[in-house]
Amino acid sequence: MRNPARPAIEDKRGPRPRKPLKVPGHRRRGLLLAALAVAVLPLTLAPAGSAGATGTSGHVLPSLKRNLIAYYDFGHPVHGNRAWERDRGRSGTDIQLVNGGSQMRVRDRDRGRVLQTQQVSPTTKGNDDWKAGVYGPTGVPTLHAFNGVRETTVMGWFKMTGENPSPNSGSDNPDDRYGAIGLAGILNGTSQGHDVRALLELITVNGEMKVVSLGRRVDGASSQTFAADADWRTLLPQDTWVFLAATFDYDNGTMALYRNGRPVPGFYTLTGDPWAVEGPPEPDVASPTDPRGIKIGGSYPQNNKEGNPCNCRMDDLMFLDRALTPGEIRAQYRRTT
Questions:
Q1: Beta strand ranges found along 164-323 (DSSP E)
Q2: 3-state percent helix, strand, coil for the chain, nearest multiple of 5
Q3: How far is CA 277 from CA 29, 107, 144, 281, 284, in A?
């Protein structure tokens, strides 16, 4: 059908094709530049992330997003202050890269931009270890989702890059070492920077270092630990990226560990009812207090003390207000492998 706005020109020889419009050279150049700008605009506006998951790239499992309270991929510094990392979860809880600042974001050949934590002065009493987190002496309001929470999950990618456990810089004995290696956790509502509500860590259990999930339901009360059966060096071999997850169900008094998407066999270190979940009232939840923060790569994110530093790299750390299912953990692992 003819376009009535531009009818074909007819003569005795029949219809003639339309002649192409002549565009001056400067206009052709302008149109070409405009087309190129449109073509690259989505790439220019796309957020720059690490090689791991990002909330906008589809690498976060859809069923997780509603419960993803805090999430750090270490490719998004806070605007105007690169010593802080922007939270890509729901809460907007930015964290500080303590002591090392922006130098703690390093380029890893396998995962792109990641976090490096480490002990700096093994023989000096001080608090110069590289760690990350946030601390509020009366609680961190943006972490309110973990106030009275019924379930929690902590997970991420970890790689051992140096000597672990570290020498105890607070001890006069040069052979003394810390009894734990800090990974990532949520502080409880009365924490001094060490006590937690939910923690993924390595600690000494019956004289042996173990990968554990450690939780505390009631502030100031007993914690419970679920420790992996396997040797920690088998689960976290040197210079190898490993995906770890820990789930906490405060109502049922249960925890679980996962490595590379699969459940890790283990045991509870305490018998009885350390979380005091037996009997009414129901359901059992964590204390009705806002956590005092998040600790990553060691204790005391307020930087007043060194504690359990980890010589390691981390990526895609996630803190959720729900205990994920085994299938969800396996699926999230596959998305970020």
A1: 180-187, 196-205, 208-216, 223-228, 242-249, 254-259, 262-263, 266-268, 293-296, 312-320
A2: 15, 35, 50
A3: 73, 45, 22, 9, 6
**pLDDT for 78-111, tens place per residue?**
999 999 999 999 999 999 999 999 999 999 999 9
User: Could you report the per-residue pLDDT of 122-132, keeping only the tens digit for each?
Assistant: 988 889 999 99
Give the Cα separation of 63 and 70 in Å (integer).
15
Give the span between the Cα atoms of 124 and 133, in whole angstroms. Answer: 23
Q: What tokens were used for 287?
A: 């204390």
**φ, ψ (nearest 5 deg) of residue 136:** -130, 120
User: Which CA distances in Å does 253 have to 149, 157, 245?
Assistant: 13, 26, 17
Distance CA 314, CA 105 (A): 10
pLDDT of 15 reads 39
Arithmetic mean of pLDDT, 264-290 = 97
Tell me phi and psi for residue 248, to 5 degrees.
-135, 125
Rg for the chain, CA atoms, rounded:
26
C-alpha span between 249 and 218 (Å, rounded): 13
* Distance, CA of 48 to CA of 43 (rounded, Å): 10
